[in-house]
Amino acid sequence: xxxxxxxxxxxxxxxxxxxxxxxxxxxxxxxxxxxxxxxxxxxxxxxxxxxxxxxxxxxxxxxxxxxxxxxxxxxxxxxxxxxxxxxxxxxxxxxxxxxxxxxxxxxxxxxxxxxxxxxxxxxxxxxxxxxxxxxxxxxxxxxxxxxxxxxxxxxxxxxxxxxxxxxxxxxxxxxxxxxxxxxxxxxxxxxxxxxxxxxxxxxxxxxxxxxxxxxxxxxxxxxxxxxxxxxxxxxxxxxxxxxxxxxxxxxxxx
Amino acid sequence: xxxxxxxxxxxxxxxxxxxxxxxxxxxxxxxxxxxxxxxxxxxxxxxxxxxxxxxxxxxxxxxxxxxxxxxxxxxxxxxxxxxxxxxxxxxxxxxxxxxxxxxxxxxxxxxxxxxxxxxxxxxxxxxxxxxxxxxxxxxxxxxxxxxxxxxxxxxxxxxxxxxxxxxxxxxxxxxxxxxxxxxxxxxxxxxxxxxxxxxxxxxxxxxxxxxxx
Lengths: 254, 213
Known about the structure:
The structure holds 2 protein chains of 2 kinds. Chain A is of the alpha/beta class.
């Protein structure tokens, strides 16, 4: 079964067409990296999958359940809000800008949603949060506020926070783009660990090293379209399209 | 000395009116202001328009005029209020508008990412508002709220105009009667003490909220 099945996604901002018929399927346990130049629509596409953006055309199924379907005229129709709520719970999202809650401690950030959204008991939520903090190597920071953490630490807390909701799928929107170069490694390591545990992951990234080594599949997007996709070694060593070649030669040169 | 004690007592009695007016205004206008602010950031077009007009009226005319309107004007619409309820009503009407605008600005200053962060965790709009947005807003609005509260202490003197004997009026009575301006000095000390206490309280609150930044 496909964990994510997005078909023919169209998205427009005012007059600007950002996604021009994108289709992507992600299987259970698969790690898919989406690469491409700025403005190619890759973040928008990821945000559409978690309904942070409303699509104009196309359909999205998560674990076989329809979040958006397409009617005969090609218009998208979203499912009932309660269904969408249930479907979205299967996904965890990590943002470029972390979006931690500044008025809550690290622990408070992680247990918030499990308690008030899932109705977990506080002790249970704390126990799980502490386990996740050990996993991302930040158990000693559990009583700190986000402002006291480095960017890399914040992002690891954000990952733990998303995992605390027990998602089946993790979406990453340029998780290391806001970090100082020396801090990207610690975040990528956590993501690599997750991949090894066979978490289904869709990662929009500028980290070519990560895409090459960790991803099962690399998708190259440009100008609102998927230009080419394949195994990392195919994309990085034998890109077929001119635009892929141009992009790769630019970023790999740096 | 006996004279000093006597006028201080008279002023103290007047300040009861001042303090009562002050607290009752706050107790009502802060929650109401928050309610109006929440309506204004929602997408309800009609109620939003109504609150626009209300805020324009409440901020666009002098508080003194509003007090006159409630006390002298409402009776012609069949609503007759005593001096003190009329004063409180006018104050709540006026201060709610200012608090609403402070809270609205505070809510809108919170980064969009906070809503998205809560949204992807499955939180509803109201859960997000109550647990994520409003606590952060509170910290940001403390300085303007403190300004408003201190202004309120001094605005209470306006109730003189409809014949209520507040702190300043009590002092004024003594001044006129005794041809001595000492009561004004005592009144000033009273106001200064009240604002000093409030300044301290807000300073402490700001410190408390500053912890996490």
